[in-house]
Amino acid sequence: MLTPMVAGGVVFPGLFLLSKNTLQRLPQLRWEEADAVIVSARLVSSVQAIMASTAGYIVSTSCKHIIDDQHWLSSAYTQFAVPYFIYDIYAMFLCHWHKHQVKGHGGDDGAARAPGSMWAIARGYLHKEFLMVLHHAAMVLVCFPLSVVWRQGKGDFFLGCMLMAEVSTPFVCLGKILIQYKQQHTLLHKVNGALMLLSFLCCRVLLFPYLYWAYGRHAGLPLLAVPLAIPAHVNLGAALLLAPQLYWFFLICRGACRLFWPRSRPPPACQAQD
User: What membrane topology does the annotation report for this chain (predicted)?
Assistant: First the structure.
């Protein structure tokens, strides 16, 4: 178990530092540190998402029996990914701190180093990213122990499908980068927004009904009978995982309304949300 975790602890922070230093030092680029940090953090998140979804596809397609079949990659990648969630909490804080500086709250007059200012930035970060920080902490403190210990080698198929939820992450990261650099009205941003909406709906929201359907097919049960046939704590866990996905999907839909139907001519559905 220790080897994949150590590898993850080296790969993700190492990739972040490599990307940041490259963007800052290449003569053709010479990016400011704030830009390099923000883009590098998004890049690492995208790389992790591609790795996770690839591992998930390999695992889920290799397990013909959705309960008993096992694949070594399921436990190996789960252990490898744990350091990413710890690293990403810090990387998100760095992005927040640099955005705070760029907006003029820091400056060169030493205000950013004034007593209590870092705590104020940290509180702002936790307020803005509370749900994401909570999600990352739960992945490390709850989901990881459950996947390694509680499963006892069962259900690799379901774990593989859960890993494929990361398919939407590269589109989310690219969208944030385009917004950061005020490219909201470009064709690339609109195409990426449509792909983000579709991938998030399919791989994060509809994933849970699919998992219930897959178990129902395995057990010979109709979809609506599955929640009553499985333990209550499984339903509770699925509901807790689904809830933030529904919230984020709502935010994505609201953003899509604002992108494709500007406020000057919003459709009735968007008017109700505003």
Answer: Multi-pass membrane protein
Single-letter amino acid, residue 170:
P
How far lies 26's CA from each of 15, 23, 31, 80, 84, in Å? Answer: 16, 6, 8, 30, 26
Q: CA-CA distance, 109 to 113, in Å (whole number)?
A: 9
- The pair of three-digit structure tokens given for residue 137, joined into one six-digit string: 């902490």
Residue 264 lies in a domain: no
Question: Among candidates 161, 38, 143, 27, which has minimal Cα distance to 81?
Answer: 143
100-138 CB burial, b ≥16 within 10 A, e <16? bbeeeebeeeeeeeeeeeeeebeeebeeebeeebebbee
Q: Which domain holds residue 48?
A: 1-100+128-166
Token digits for 143?
Answer: 């989901």
Tell whether 151 is covered by a domain: yes
For helices 130-138 and 72-100, what crossing angle results, to 10°?
Answer: 160
Q: What is the pLDDT of residues 103-114, one digit of tens each?
A: 654 444 444 444
Number of helices (H) and strands (E), helices first, in the chain? 13, 0
Q: Residue 77 falls within a domain, yes or no? A: yes
* Domains held by the chain: number: 1
* Cβ within 8 Å of residue 91, ≥6 positions away: 16, 37, 41, 44
Query: Considering just the CA atoms, what is the radius of gyration of the chain in Å?
Result: 21
Which contiguous run of DSSP H or E holds residue 273? helix 268-273
- The predicted-structure confidence for 115-168, as pLDDT tens digits, reads as follows 447 888 888 999 999 999 999 999 999 989 888 878 888 899 999 999 999 999
In a domain, 204, yes or no: no
Q: How far apart are CA 63 and CA 56, in angstroms?
A: 11
